[in-house]
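Lay summary. Proteins are chains of building blocks that fold into shapes, and those shapes determine what they do. In this project we predict the shape from the chain. Here is one chain we studied, written as its sequence of building blocks.
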Amino acid sequence: MSVELQFIKKLTLVSGNANRQLAEDIAEHLGIPLTQMAVSRFADGETRVKIDESIRGQDVFVVQPTSPPANEHLMELLIIIDALRRASAHRIAAVIPYYGYARQDKKVKPREPITARLVANLLEVAGAQRVLAMDLHSGPLQGFFNIPVDNLSALLLFVQHIKEHGFTPEKTVVVSPDVGGVARASEVASRVGFALAIIAKRRPEPNVAEAIELIGDVEGRTCILYDDIVDTGGSVVNGAKLLERRGAGRILVYATHGILSGDALQRIEQSPIEKVVITDTIAFPPEKQNGKVEIVSTALTFAEAIRRGFADESISTLFK
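And here is the predicted shape, written in a compact code that computers can read:
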């Protein structure tokens, strides 16, 4: 008696607690439901994960940014990946829209850790076989992994948003808030046909930035400050004040990851910044809603990247 076996690879999507809304939006674009999984806490605060459906032999994508509280969300992600591995998932990909600890990618002073590398090691040990992230703060961070890392970009989303809002090329400037972000800002400027300006700054201590000089002409022009992260808001607010002193017109901020920690929103509200456009890589709770903040969805970008990764198609062509 002969038995013919047909194996059909299946795409499965699961989500931790860090940004479930984004995971649901991605699932909707993919046309699949989120796999049922309970992520809860024991009485002592330890994370408990229970996958409620069989995922044996399936390709599983876990959506979980390691956003604040970073330690809690990172540990949750590691435990979910371990649970999937022990449940015999075929392939496990960690979809990390915002990769926490990416800014700790080198030793700035003696006896400091390289935490971005440590997190990469933890993800691999847990069982991740691929990572999808967006606008990693540090490009070399991909080299910290021994598994494939796809660094997606919000650039095309922002370029489309900028084009839809009718800025006049001759009267608009893309501004890099620091020297390290020049390549990023330059790419946007070239895509939309705007001029480029650069702010030089210094950091006397972590999370504190001082804008000290401006390279470029902004007088009477709309300025688009383009960055990857808005955390305390110090960099963009100080940059906006410098632009205002140099005679800039409207001042807007575009940034992929809106951490907006502490009193960042209040600081932005009281600044010359007219609007802050961020993405949904980090959950933005209702209590933080602010008239100056606009959110652009990354769900379709992640959904298409996941679909291509599942089908073993090129992901890089998505951004050409």
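What the prediction tells us: The first strand starts at residue 11 and ends at 15.
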